[in-house]
Amino acid sequence: MATILIIDDDDAFREGLAETVQDLGYSSSEARSGDEAFEQLRGRSAPDCIFLDFRLPGADGLAVLETLRKTPGLQTVPVVMLTAHATSDNTIGAMRLGAFEHLTKPVGREEIAALLERILSAQRETPAARGFADEATSREPQLLGASEAMREVQKRLGRAAGGNSTVLITGETGTGKEIAASVLHRASARASGPFVAVNCAAIPDDLLESELFGHGKGAFTGAQADRRGRVEEAHGGTLFLDEVGDMPLSMQAKLLRVLQERQVTPLGTNRIVTVDVRVVAATHRDLASMVEAGTFRQDLLFRLNVIPLHMPPLRERVADILPLAEHFLASASSDVARKHLSADAQRLLATFAWPGNVRELANAIERASALAPGQVLTRDDFAFLTATPDSANDAIPPALLELPLPQAVAQLERALIVHALSAAGGNRTEAARRLGISRQSLYTRMAAQGMSEASA
């Protein structure tokens, strides 16, 4: 039978709450102050839950809660703070110290029953995921995974680490491409050299050449001194080009030359710098399709794709989801107040689609851990994963699904034009801006749709 400790100096309220707790089938014990409570707890088993009033003789409720969180055997006991006058300070203070809940008196029987069921049912859940207990702890990023898909990635990465060939890492956003590149660098003979990462998608096109190859003084406005590029900075180590599929065609040609000759010429100079770098590139894009569309150079793809390494999406490595979740939870929790996943939370995480992959899982665990009131994270703590906004306006009308693609696209385009014109009050310049096209392109599309001034 679960035991509930009630610490409150209001005799009537304390006795009434104890009676309610007993009527609900639990055992109760009472104390009028923090000192009395600690005296009772000395040498006894920890209670399953503590109701703690803010205003107490001697040390107040927040001080008692802080002491509980430092007392061995009591750090993880769920504490429900009680107050007759809730303020932002006492509420925030209680939650900062790890209170499970904060209630304002008077408290109804149904609220007490629901709260205790929530607390005690979470405690009854037995965590099943083991995590990656056999993995050596490291401050460096780790490529964790025991699924067959990740085992293959780890094997190929290990083989690639033995040479200097260029590696192309593909995979959806959030699958850990940069981590794989970092692990490859640390496992290679270049581990003592620099690991230089460049996100090609995050740098404006007109600055990317200077960023990669450097520049001389006076090469452009604002170039006050010579500057080494990231390629030169990676000399003796590894250059990681993230989102290489977003690199403009003009830069692709220059990168190809660097890969072929292992030389760079800083912008605005005639100086040639010989570099010894291993290039690891990554992208979430389909480069083969981009080659067919003429937006990515085929010869550069050949140069980059010497050793291909594909990072599988999380939905294809289900066996890794719960161990990864426990790993992230251990990182987010303190050693004293280690949190765990309930069985219902584990079921949710294991069956969720994870469109953001490992990055989304790590974010979800950190968010739930930071906001969960108890030591056991339940399905309710991950409600944000399944709470999707109303997508009625985003759904494809069933009628369009039955049409040939050209006809369906034409109907959709017409509807978008009509909507943009309506939202812009008939102003075609504004409508074109909303659609992200030029005004002339809007006129051309309207003419192709047979849309006159009146029909628009």
TrEMBL record:
InterPro entries: AAA+_ATPase (IPR003593), AAA_lid_NorR (IPR058031), CheY-like_superfamily (IPR011006), Homeodomain-like_sf (IPR009057), HTH_Fis (IPR002197), P-loop_NTPase (IPR027417), Sig_transdc_resp-reg_receiver (IPR001789), Sigma_54_int (IPR002078). Residues 143-370 form the Sigma-54 factor interaction domain. GO terms for biological process: phosphorelay signal transduction system; regulation of DNA-templated transcription. Transmembrane segments: none annotated. The modification 4-aspartylphosphate is found at residue 53. It comes from the Bacteria. Keywords: ATP-binding, DNA-binding, Nucleotide-binding, Phosphoprotein, Transcription, Transcription regulation. GO terms for molecular function: ATP binding; sequence-specific DNA binding. SMART domains: AAA, REC. Residues 3-120 form the Response regulatory domain. PROSITE patterns: RESPONSE_REGULATORY, SIGMA54_INTERACT_2, SIGMA54_INTERACT_3, SIGMA54_INTERACT_4. PANTHER family: TRANSCRIPTIONAL REGULATORY PROTEIN. This is ATPase AAA.
